[in-house]
Specification:
Elements: H1 13-18, E1 24-28, H2 35-45, E2 52-54, H3 73-85, E3 88-93, H4 96-104, E4 109-112, H5 114-117, H6 120-130, E5 136-140, H7 147-159, E6 165-169, H8 186-195, E7 201-203, H9 205-209, H10 215-224, E8 229-233, H11 251-260, H12 269-312, H13 319-335, H14 340-362
Parallel strand pairs: 1-2, 1-8, 2-3, 3-4, 4-5, 5-6, 6-7, 7-8
Keywords: Coiled coil, Transferase
Protein name: chorismate mutase
GO molecular function: chorismate mutase activity; transferase activity
Length: about 375
């Protein structure tokens, strides 16, 4: 049965039961490298806001020949982490064998990675292996921006009578270069929240950014959008990590990030109003950045047109083309509730900027 047909509040029970006064925090190294490394990081995180200690045991890599994890040996190190620090443990699973070993070693939280979420066959195999478990299971978004595929994975696990579910937003792959390792596509996460407000959602700023200097800003955006927690890769010596060195932060930096984040609590009507307002403003900020990015791409195309016109000695202004664009945009704008006056002002400004770009190229 589709989870859209049921009350999703039961999925939130595990998070509510924790009674946290801060966002859920899952932190630890991208990869478990050595027992000493795992234990050192755990001991530096044990008296912080971290709720689950994460470490990759099996590491699916994009290309062969890269470090692919220490394997089942690392599960014993996670057992030691729990015994000596009291931290609950978390790791990624990608098949039935991983699940069975993780359960055997009493790992508290399991997540399905982005590469696994794209395959219903893999997700079903994991769901079958986990059927009826009381462990927390989180599903990362698929590498491609496909909301139905993401929710389909959740439904498969829910159908397997796994109640303690949640999702992880880690961004989406794209061919185009950007400042992000994986494009956030925040609107997709917002749509998921709108459909299932009681499905816990965790943000993974490490994989979104691929850059430790951007972790804080993405984390703050996530909290402004009412995300329930963060998964942040943490290493005492990030630059020498065996995988994903650029996106890991030190335990000290993680602690500072958690101190600096503005966490808005919903305690009364005024706070609820403020929280909702901040959420909507955060959505506007995201869209504004997308608008600027799109306009930048448009002007690069204008530059290419300018170079072509210079080569063929063609005038910058082509009135017929401009009038056709304007007419089409007025109609498109009206269909979206935008006034003709606004469309005219906006596209005249865009057109003028395009002319400026082309003239600069033509005039050298």
């Amino acid at each position: 049965m589709s989870i859209e047909m049921e009350n999703s509040k039961q999925m939130r029970t595990w998070l509510d039961d924790m009674k946290l006064d801060h966002p859920l925090v899952i932190a630890g190294p991208c990869s478990a490298e050595t027992e000493e490394q795992v234990m050192r990081i755990a001991n530096e995180l044990k008296d912080t806001d971290v709720n689950y200690y994460r470490a990759g045991i099996w590491k699916p890599r994009t290309r062969p020949g890269m470090f692919e994890g220490v394997g089942a040996l690392g599960l014993k190190w996670l057992q030691k982490v729990k015994k000596e620090t009291g931290l609950k443990t978390a790791t990624e699973v990608a098949n039935r064998a991983h699940v069975e070993l993780a359960l055997e070693h009493d790992i508290d939280l399991l997540w399905i990675g982005a590469r696994s979420t794209v395959s219903p066959f893999i997700v079903q195999e994991i769901a079958d292996a986990l059927e009826g478990t009381d462990k927390i299971v989180l599903i990362k978004n698929p590498v491609n921006p496909d909301l139905a595929l993401w929710l389909g994975a959740v439904e498969r696990l829910h159908t397997a009578n796994i109640k303690n579910l949640g999702v992880i937003h880690r961004g989406f792959s794209t061919y185009e270069k950007s400042k992000y390792r994986n494009i956030p596509e925040w609107q997709m996460a917002i749509e998921l929240q709108t459909k299932f407000p009681d499905l816990p959602i965790i943000n993974d700023p490490s994989h979104i950014t691929g850059n430790r200097d951007m972790i804080f800003d993405v984390s703050q955006t996530a909290l402004d959008l009412n995300f329930d927690g963060l998964m942040i890769e943490t290493h005492y010596d990030p630059d020498n990590a065996w995988s994903d060195a650029a996106q890991q932060v030190t335990p000290e930096k993680l602690i500072q990030i958690m101190r600096d984040l503005k966490i808005r609590k919903e305690s009364n009507e005024e706070m609820e109003y403020t929280n909702n307002l901040n959420n909507l403003r955060a959505q506007i900020d995201i869209i504004d950045n997308q608008v600027i990015d799109i306009l930048g791409k448009r002007m690069k195309i204008s530059d290419s047109i300018g170079a072509l016109k210079k080569q063929k000695n063609v005038a910058v202004l082509q009135s017929n083309r401009w009038n056709a664009i304007l007419g089409n945009m007025i109609l498109e704008g009206e269909a979206r509730g935008l006034s003709e006056e606004f469309i005219l002002k906006m596209f005249k400004a865009i057109h003028q900027e395009s002319i400026n770009h082309q003239e600069k190229i033509i005039n050298g």
